[in-house]
Amino acid sequence: MMQGLLDQTTVQIYWSNLRECDQEMKRLIDAAERYRYASFPHPADADRFLLSASLVRCIAGGYCSRPPRQILVDRRCARCGAPHGKPRILGSQLQLSVSHSADWVGVACHIGAEVGLDVEHAHQRDLDQLVEHVLAPQERELFLRLEPADRPWGFLRFWTRKEAVVKATGDGLGVDPKNVVVSGPKQPPTLLSREFKPMRLYDLSAQPGHVAALAVRRAAHLNVEERAGLEVLAGA
User: Fold this and answer.
1) Which pLDDT score, from 0 to 100, does residue 147 have?
2) Do strands 94-101 and 104-111 pair parallel, antiparallel, or not at all (unpaired)?
3) Contact between residue 48 and residue 229 where contact means Cβ atoms under 8 Å apart
4) In terms of domains, do 48 and 130 share one?
């Protein structure tokens, strides 16, 4: 069941750890999802998909007052038509966005307006190359003002905010990240690029060792609630 009120003033994000993935969850998903689950060559990737698909169905089932298996989920990619796109709940105003990194899976849900969620694990990266390809000139200037020890975290603040925006718009990798200009990591999260507005950005608490951001295609400020995925999975 959905926990708490979900309406046009609220966004809920449900977080689950891979430890919570159970093979019994396969009874919650449909034949196409089971086929995709079986196609992953690595067990951890398969479990991330199973956990996220189960969360999507349990969240939507609670909102629509239907069993998870009866929820109609459209996963067709808007670009190529393959079943790996942003999940859409047919016949409902519920908007969802899924993200995962390392052992954590998150699902954001809202009514009416598109949402974008991104979470990233703070592992070591080649920042010099990434900064050159991802950050706009004004963002690079803010990045270089950070203390060296703060730069890995600072880069992920930029990255997750940008990713959340293009997930909300549905553009994904089709947009040059330099064209999605956001505020600096020590500033309140704000989208500066006019062409993607209206858009509200939020930094999330996520999980230890991770950085996460949420984007919502609304101008008004919203209530953001981060919850445990077990709240919806336990009753399935």
Assistant:
1) 96
2) antiparallel
3) no
4) no
